[in-house]
Specification:
The complex is a heterodimer of chains A (about 100) and B (about 230). Chain A has five helices and two strands; from the N terminus they run αααββαα. Chain A has about 100 residues and is mainly alpha-helical. Chain A has a domain at about 65-105. Chain A has a two-stranded antiparallel ribbon with strand order 1-2. In chain A, strand 1 (about 55-60) and strand 2 (about 60) form a beta hairpin. Chain A is extended and about 55 Å long. Chain B has a domain at about 1-150. Chain B has about 230 residues and is an all-alpha fold. Chain B is built from ten helices and no strands. The chains are: A mainly alpha (about 100), B mainly alpha (about 230). At the A-B interface, helix 1, helix 2, helix 3, strand 2 and helix 4 of A face helix 1, helix 2, helix 3, helix 4 and helix 5 of B.
C-alpha cells in the first residue's frame, strides 16, 4: 500500500470516528447549559468563517475576485427570499460572467 | 405540516444538486493533486466531508506529507463531532446500524437543515433527506470531476468558485434573520468568526483558520439564566 493510500484510508476512518463520537457521547454532557450555548452559536461562527475564507482566500493569500460579486448577488437574492437553488445558480452565473468579462 | 415536509424535501434535493457541483470541483482537485480515481472515490464515499477532503488533497497537492494531510483532514473533521453532539438528541438513533449510518451523514449541510427545521419530525426528515441527497450527488459528481478534470474550462471553474461561498451564506442567512432566537448575538458571533478566519488566513495552514474561528463563539457570552424549557 502506498503512503498516499494509507493517508486516504487513515484520514477517512478517523473522520468517520469523529462523527460517530459526536452521536455517542452521553446525553448528560449535552444538557449542560454552556454546552448548549456553544452548540447554538458554533454554526454561526463556522459558517461565517467558511463564507469569508471561501470568498476571499486562495491558499494563504487574501484575494478579491469574481467570488465577491457572486457572494453579493447571493446576498441580494437571499434578502429577496429567493429559493436556495436560485441563489446558488445566480451566484455561479455572476462568477462566470466576471471571469468572461475579465479575461 | 405537509407544507414543511414538501419544502424540506425540495430544499434537500436542491442542496444535493448544489453540493454535487462542488463535488465536481473536488474530483478535479483530487486529480490535479495526483490522486487516482479510486482514491478520490474512497474519500468521497468513506470520509464524506467536503472541507476535510479538500484539506487532504490540498496538502498532498502542495507537497505536504501524509501526516500533515491526515492531520488537517482530522482537524476539520472535529467540526462534525460538535455537530454530532448537537444532533444526537434530535436523531436519537436506535440500534448500532442506524447510528453508524446516521454518523456518516453528520456534516455541515445536514446539521444546518435539521437545526433550521420547525419541529423534531421535520428535523429528522431534513437530516436524512439532505444526507442521502448530498451523499448521492457528492459521490456521483466526484467521479465526474475526477474523470473529466482536464475538460473543465476556466469559466466553469469560476462559476464553481462562486457557488461554494454562496451556498455557505445561504446556510448562514436564516440564523441572522430577525425572528431567529437571539439573532443579534448570532450576527455578532458570525462577524467575529469571519474576522478571525480572515485574519489568520495568511499565517496558518489552509483550513486551520476555520477551526480557530469557532472560538468566536465566546462572543455569545454566558448562557441566559431565564431560559424556559
Amino acid at each position: 500500500m502506498s503512503e498516499l493510500w494509507i493517508a486516504v484510508v487513515a484520514a477517512s476512518v478517523g473522520c468517520y470516528l469523529l462523527k460517530l463520537a459526536g452521536l455517542s457521547v452521553p446525553a448528560s454532557w449535552v444538557e449542560q447549559p454552556w454546552v448548549a450555548r456553544v452548540v447554538d452559536f458554533v454554526p454561526a461562527a463556522l459558517l461565517a468563517a467558511l463564507v469569508a475564507v471561501q470568498t476571499l482566500s486562495s491558499g494563504n493569500d487574501l484575494v478579491v475576485d469574481g467570488r465577491v460579486v457572486g457572494l453579493g448577488v447571493a446576498a441580494v437574492a437571499l434578502a429577496l427570499r429567493a429559493p436556495f437553488i436560485v441563489v446558488i445558480l445566480l451566484a455561479g452565473i455572476a462568477g462566470a460572467l466576471v471571469h468572461v468579462v475579465g479575461s | 405540516m405537509p407544507d414543511d415536509r414538501s419544502r424540506t424535501l425540495r430544499d434537500s434535493m436542491g442542496l444535493g444538486l448544489a453540493v454535487g457541483l462542488y463535488g465536481v470541483a473536488f474530483g478535479a482537485s483530487a486529480d490535479a493533486a495526483g490522486l487516482d480515481a479510486w482514491q478520490a472515490m474512497v474519500l468521497s464515499a468513506l470520509m464524506f466531508s467536503g472541507a476535510s477532503q479538500f484539506a487532504l488533497v490540498g496538502v498532498v497537492g502542495a507537497g505536504g506529507g501524509a501526516a500533515a494531510a491526515v492531520g488537517s483532514a482530522l482537524l476539520l473533521g472535529t467540526r462534525n463531532t460538535v455537530y454530532g453532539v448537537r444532533m444526537a438528541p434530535l436523531l436519537a438513533p436506535r440500534g448500532l446500524l442506524r447510528r453508524a449510518g446516521a454518523a456518516q451523514l453528520v456534516i455541515d449541510e445536514t446539521t444546518a437543515m435539521a437545526v433550521a427545521a420547525p419541529d423534531r419530525e421535520t428535523g429528522r426528515l431534513a437530516f436524512w433527506a439532505t444526507g442521502l441527497s448530498i451523499y448521492l450527488g457528492w459521490n456521483v459528481m466526484t467521479l465526474v470531476g475526477v474523470l473529466g478534470a482536464s475538460g473543465l474550462g476556466g469559466t466553469a471553474e469560476a462559476a464553481l468558485d462562486s457557488v461554494v461561498p454562496a451556498a455557505f451564506l445561504a446556510l448562514l442567512w436564516p440564523r441572522l434573520r430577525r425572528g431567529f432566537g437571539e439573532h443579534g448575538v448570532q450576527r455578532r458571533v458570525a462577524l467575529g468568526g469571519a474576522v478571525v478566519a480572515l485574519a489568520l488566513t495568511p499565517v496558518v495552514p489552509a483550513g486551520v483558520q476555520v477551526i480557530v474561528a469557532a472560538g468566536a463563539v465566546a462572543l455569545a457570552g454566558r448562557p441566559r439564566r431565564e431560559v424556559v424549557a
